[in-house]
Amino acid sequence: MVRRFATAVWEWARRHRFRSGVLTGVVVGALVAVLVPALLPDRPDGLEPPTDDPLIILSGLDESDDKQREILVAQWNATHRQQARIVSLPARADDAHAAMVEYAQATANRVDIYNLDVTWTAEFAAARYIVPFPGGPVDRSGFLEKPLLTCEWNGKLWALPFNTDAALLYHRTDLGLEPPGSLTGVRAAIDQVRQRPVAERRGVEAGYVSQLRAYEGLTVNALEAIWAAGGDVVSRDNRIVIKSEEAAAGLRWLAAGLAEPGNLPLILPGSRGFDERGSTDAFAEGRAAFMRNWPVAYRLLTPEGAPAPRVPFAVTPLPGGPSVLGGQNLAVSSRSARPRAARALIEYLTSERSQQILFERGGLAATRRIVYLDARVQERYPYAQTLLESIEAARPRPMTTNYVAFSQVFQGVVREALDDNGRITDDHVQRLEAALRGRR
Ligand code: GLC
């Protein structure tokens, strides 16, 4: 093709009677003008040419202190011609999931990047809402191993981890309690407070507050209580193993705690209506001695610039067992017209610098190890080491394309068990088996 093009230019120049030196110049000039741009990438940085439409990131509500994700995107916008924008969905995982699936299925909506909960990777990949991470080999070094594993499915990498999550036990430091190492230890600590006159309880109304509303938070809390009691729900070879004395003991801990009488119940009854924000508020108001929550609550309880935390508190790992591994991953939409720019933005948001900002200023658990090892971070945020250890010990939820349906059935089962002193029936097991296999 090049030879045909060169011959045509030569012929044209000869017909117009150029002298031979000029002739060669014309041919070479024409070749350079036509071929060089074709051989180079569209732009020196390899991205698609910028357009006026911003790259759209679809994400659950940013709950970090001062909306640090938005601030990072604003920083990208200040240094890149291709602008980007976050479109915010509801905060609660289930509501964000429903809204994201709706976006993915509606052809009119344009999304470039999905900020997916770690449990949705398989579903979005199998439905082809997202593409395997585009544009050649990815530098995976520096990411924590567990969050990165949640970006993989069917032997491929589909996303990069934006933030990770492992729960911590928050406890009031003005009550003189030893942080407990087991579920029975939590109960023993509350018993101590119960024995004190009301005036010495510092306003505490209950032992423990958590997220027991019927949504993904209930799945997470029930899994953790069952694990802490030595039981399990789905075995490593993908069977339902919830019908055990240990699993029942975990559920009973929650059920009995909620059913306790008025005089300082083990679990704040309002927990059955709380999500992450509701439980953080109750703890901040001083209503409970302990709280199970994600690390982002730490920063919400110690707002930047405030003279003192909202209540005096410290954190330890969850008592008795591992946390569920939480977090969100950034994946490129299969309908993005700018996958290379989307990839560049994801790499920017998951870079060391961005991860440090998200953790230091927003309290979102970083997905890169170096952030936790930084001397300044360790000095300013004494819980960084505890958090890193909790992330490394955390357990993922089942990796399946029908995770959300499974989790909804599990929530129904847990709610029934909480009303029946933790009892699990054969019918529960069958419902969970069917849901795990994608049968409803
Ligand atoms: C947090 C976690 C997420 C989990 C959700 C449950 O956002 O990061 O993985 O599904 O809480 O409420």
Describe the protein's topology.
Elements: H1 2-15, H2 20-39, E1 55-60, H3 68-79, E2 84-89, H4 93-105, E3 113-117, H5 121-126, H6 145-149, E4 152-153, E5 156-157, E6 160-166, E7 168-172, H7 183-194, E8 206-209, H8 216-228, H9 245-259, H10 276-284, E9 288-293, H11 296-301, E10 313-317, E11 325-332, H12 339-349, H13 352-362, H14 369-373, H15 375-380, H16 384-393, H17 403-418, H18 426-436
Parallel strand pairs: 1-2, 1-3, 8-9
Antiparallel strand pairs: 3-11, 4-5, 6-11, 7-9, 7-10
Helix pairs in contact: 1-2, 8-9, 8-17, 17-18
The chain binds alpha-D-glucopyranose.
Alpha-D-glucopyranose is lined by residues 93, 117-118, 165, 216-217, 220, 294, 326-327.
Keywords: Membrane, Signal, Transmembrane, Transmembrane helix, Transport
Protein name: ABC transporter substrate-binding protein
Transmembrane segments: 21-40
